[in-house]
UniProtKB/TrEMBL annotation, chain A:
SMART domains: AAA. NCBIfam families: ABC_phnC (TIGR02315). This is Phosphonate ABC transporter ATP-binding protein. GO terms for molecular function: ATP binding. It comes from the Bacteria. CDD domains: ABC_PhnC_transporter. It comes from Cohnella silvisoli. SUPFAM superfamilies: P-loop containing nucleoside triphosphate hydrolases. Residues 2-246 form the ABC transporter domain. InterPro entries: AAA+_ATPase, ABC_transporter-like_ATP-bd, ABC_transporter-like_CS, ABC_transpr_PhnC, MetN_ABC_transporter-like, P-loop_NTPase. Keywords: ATP-binding, Cell membrane, Membrane, Nucleotide-binding, Phosphonate transport, Translocase, Transport.
Automatic annotation (TrEMBL), chain B:
It is a multi-pass membrane protein. The chain crosses the membrane at residues 77-102, 123-147, 181-201, 208-224, 236-254. SUPFAM superfamilies: MetI-like. This is Phosphonate ABC transporter, permease protein PhnE. The gene is phnE. Keywords: Cell membrane, Membrane, Transmembrane, Transmembrane helix, Transport. Gene3D superfamilies: MetI-like. Belongs to the binding-protein-dependent transport system permease family. Pfam families: BPD_transp_1. It is found in: Cell membrane. Residues 71-254 form the ABC transmembrane type-1 domain.
Amino acid sequence: MIEFRKVSKVYPGGTVGLNNIDLKIEPGEFVVIVGLSGAGKSTLLRSINRLHEITSGEIFISGKSITSAEGRQLRVMRRGIGMIFQSFNLVKRSTVLRNVLAGRVGYRSTFRTLLGLFPKHDMDLAFGALKRVNMLEKAYQRADQLSGGQQQRVSIARALAQEATIILADEPVASLDPLTTRQVMDDLQRINREMGITTVVNLHYIDLAREYATRIIGVRAGEIVFDGTAAEATDDVFSAIYGRPVSEAERLGGKTDEAI
Amino acid sequence: MKPSEGYPQKPSPSLKKGMTFALLIALVWLSAWETEVDINELIDGIPEMGKFIAKMFPPDWDYIGVVIKPMVETVQMAILGTTFGAIVAFPISFLAASNVTRMWLLRTPARLILNLTRTIPDLLFAALFAAVFGYGPLAGTLALSFFSFGILSKWAYEAIETIDNGPMEAMTAVGANKLQWIHFGVIPQVMAQFIGFAMYMFEINIRAAAILGIVGAGGIGIYLNRTLGMFRYDQTFIIILFTLVIVLAIDTVSSRIRGKLI
C-alpha cells in the first residue's frame, strides 16, 4: 500500500508542485494519473520512491515511512519499487541481460555486484523476467540495438527482476508509436493482473487511461481534482482536469471507440 | 544586399568584434617585440638552416644500432607513464565530476589537485624528478605519469559530465549504493571513451618521452642532446628519422583501434 499524508512540495522558486495531497493506493491497483504537463503528475509519482523529495508531509510504503528512511533503509525500500521511465533509461552500451541484472544490485553485496558475480537465483529471475516480456532471445544483444518498444520492455523486465511489489511508470509510452504503446501497456496490465503488482502510471492519452486503469486520478496545479473509476472519468471530467475541452491530441485512437 | 521587407535586418558588426580583433593584433605584436622576434632575422637564418641540413648528409646509418636500446626505453617510459597516470586519473575523475560527486567538499579538492598538476609542464616534472631520483628513465617515467594524470583526469571528468543522466537515475531507483550506481550507471557509458583517451595519451607520451632526455630523464632525448652538442648532425638525422617512424607507426595503429572503439 502507498499512502500520502498531507504531502506538499514547493520548488525553490516558490512554484507549488504538490499541495497537501492525501492519497491511498491499495495493493494490486492499476492507477493511472492524468493531468496537463506541469500539473504535478511526475512530481507525485517520483515522490513515491523519493527520486523527488517532498517539502512536507509523509509518504508510507506498506506502512513504513520512506520520507524518513535514510541510507540502507531507503535503498531497501527502493529495491522493492520498480520504475519505468519515458526514455527507458537503459545503459545503451550494455547488454540486455546486464541491464536487467542491474535490478538485482540492491539485494547483493557491493563486492559481488562489482565483480558481476550474480548467483543463479538472480540469473533465473533475470531470464524469467525477460521471458515474461518476450525478450528472452535478445538477452545478449546490446540495448542500443533494440527498438524503443523493446527497450521499454527490457526496462519492465528490470523492474520485475527487482521482485518489485510496486511499479511506477512515468510516461512509459510517450516516446513510442501507437502499436508498441499498446504492447507496452498490455505488458504492464498483464504483470499487474498475473503478479498482483501495484502499478501507478502517468499517462496523457485519455483513452488509454480509461482502457487500462482500475482507478484514475486527475491532477491539476498540484492537487487531486478527480479520483474514481475509469467509467466515472467521462470527457467532462477530463475537461475539468485539464481546465479546457479535451483535444484530439490527447487520444491515442485505435481500439477504444467509446473515446471517439 | 538590401534588407527585404518583413525580415529582420542583419545586425551590423558590433564594436566588440572590432575591439577583440584589435586587441589580438596588439597582443601578437607586443609579444614579438618583447621577445625580439624579427622577420629579417628569420630570413637571415635560412642559409644557416641549409647548412644544418647539409651536414646531416650522408646520414650515419650505423648509428641506428646505438639508438635502438634508448628508443625501446623511450617507448617503455611512455607505456609505463600512461598506465600509471591512467590508473590514478580515472578513479579521481569520478570525484571531480559534478554529476557523480554532488558533495562540494569532495569535488573541489579533487579538482584543485587536477588543475594544479596540469599547470606543471612535462619537462619541468622531468627536471624535478631527475633532480630527486637521479638521471635516468625512472625520472622520465614519473614525469610522464604525472603529466598523463593531469591531462587524462581532465578529459575523463569532462566526459563523465556529458553522459546520459537516465541510467544513473534508474540505478538510484533500483536501490543501488554509490559504488554500484557508478559501476552500472556510469562506467559502461564512459569505458570506451576512457580507453580511447588512454591510447591518445600514449601517442602524446611517445612524443613527450622522446625529448625528456634533454633534461636527463632517460630515453632517446639524451642521445639527441649529445649528437647536437657534438655537431654530429648525421647522427641527429638518424634519431629524428627513427623517432618519426616509431611515432607514425604507433599513431597509425592507435588511431585505428580508437576508431573501432565507438
